[in-house]
């Protein structure tokens, strides 16, 4: 998981917003926007934001998490299923 790469004062973020957005288009950077030296907001790409929402959806789905936990348990026990068994090739 990425952490905040940089903290930017709100006055600088306002004057440099277009350049910050351009930088986000090609990176996974996360910027903290500060007000009086304290982080108040976070600027991330839309792609990263959508990924976070998808992760939250999965984590809040009890059935999906039950299946994921079971799979992790089975994998740690060395119980693997061959590709052909799953996809019938």
Textual characterization of the structure:
The structure is a single chain. The chain has five helices and three strands; from the N terminus they run E-H-H-E-E-H-H-H. The chain has 89 residues and is an alpha+beta fold. It has two domains: 6-44, YefM-like fold; 47-80. The chain has a three-stranded mixed β-sheet. A hairpin with a 2-residue loop joins strand 2 and strand 3 (38-43). It is elongated and about 55 Å long.
Quick summary:
With 89 residues, this protein is of the alpha+beta class. It is built from five helices and three strands.
Topology summary:
Blueprint: E1 6-9, H1 10-15, H2 17-25, E2 31-35, E3 38-43, H3 46-60, H4 62-76, H5 83-87
Parallel strand pairs: 1-2
Antiparallel strand pairs: 2-3
Number of domains: 2
Indicate the low-confidence ranges by residue numbers.
none
Strand content: 15-25%
How far the N terminus sits from the C terminus, by CA atoms, comes to 35 Å
Measured as a percent range, the helix fraction is 55-70%
